[in-house]
Amino acid sequence: xxxxxxxxxxxxxxxxxxxxxxxxxxxxxxxxxxxxxxxxxxxxxxxxxxxxxxxxxxxxxxxxxxxxxxxxxxxxxxxxxxxxxxxxxxxxxxxxxxxxxxxxxxxxxxxxxxxxxxxxxxxxxxxxxxxxxxxxxxxxxxxxxxxxxxxxxxxxxxxxxxxxxxxxxxxxxxxxxxxxxxxxxxxxxxxxxxxxxxxxxxxxxxxxxxxxxxxxxxxxxxxxxxxxxxxxxxxxxxxxxxxxxxxxxxxxxxxxxxxxxxxxxxxxxxxxxxxxxxxxxxxxxxxxxxxxxxxxxxxxxxxxxxxxxxxxxxxxxxxxxxxxxxxxxxxxxxxxxxxxxxxxxxxxxxxxxxxxxxxxxxxxxxxxxxxxxxxxxxxxxxxxxxxxx
Length: 389
Known about the structure:
Blueprint: H1 2-34, H2 43-46, H3 50-62, H4 68-90, H5 94-114, H6 121-131, H7 139-167, H8 178-190, H9 193-208, H10 213-233, H11 236-242, H12 244-262, H13 264-267, H14 273-298, H15 302-316, H16 318-333, H17 346-370, H18 375-385
Pfam families: DUF418
InterPro entries: Bact_Transport_Assoc, DUF418
Protein name: DUF418 domain-containing protein
């Protein structure tokens, strides 16, 4: 009985730790676009010092595209959990889900237009509406669908990009968009709040609505919701916690495969679009799965679980912390704040990111000692269920 309770405790702790760590990983990547026009430049042309290039390489291999899959999977995990509870209580989750994701949709647009254009809440909300049609399926079917939706398009696009590169090598490289870089620097670096807002809307439209970008966003996010929902129904994390040795072996296999895939551009050519796509679309999720296995494994040990518990506190307030990261990032870097946009090194940006997140971890712990959930989580709950607490 004690062993079963320990496994269940490891499963519960690992869920919040995964949310917290993925939130930190996303913040590291987001910091790139807070303090420079990351959407539009080739980073290997932009960063000039060896120190910054090394720092970017580490982020590119170990962080980029390997933490948002975890965050999205945990979002699907939570949706499946709420669906199960709602069905037991009222027989349906449909209207609860609609209210829940409608709030997130509106919040995401407000966040994108008035704080930061790299918002993920809008895309998660749309994916949330879609998953309402799938939550009735078994965990096994959800996992299969998620993996198919994730890897089949990824393999097809990878093949098409490789073939396109063979036929036209010049157009297979990622080039810096000088015009967009100049516009971003002018707006974010020295523009008024109104000018910054117009640039934010333009950036968001370019990255979400132009040239099939929205469909591409869906096929890179929605599968992870299915996988997370399937993992909940299949009790995957609990099974991993019950078999730590097998989970550790799984980590080593996935980590090795993910690292090789993520390293392809660095080994062959960092500016080649086919290699960059394979790195993120295939290597990113594989490495993410290895991180999940490692966290579950570590959480089976009390000492390791205690060391990771601060990340769990931040994970319990992930929506509040995510929005605060954007607010702080915009105030630090945009012209209507301290105006550091384009003015600091990547290394300094990483140190800022670590410092801000460390403060968030401390504040999250203090807040949750007094309240049951974070402030934005409480508002979200009120909008969803019409009750406080």
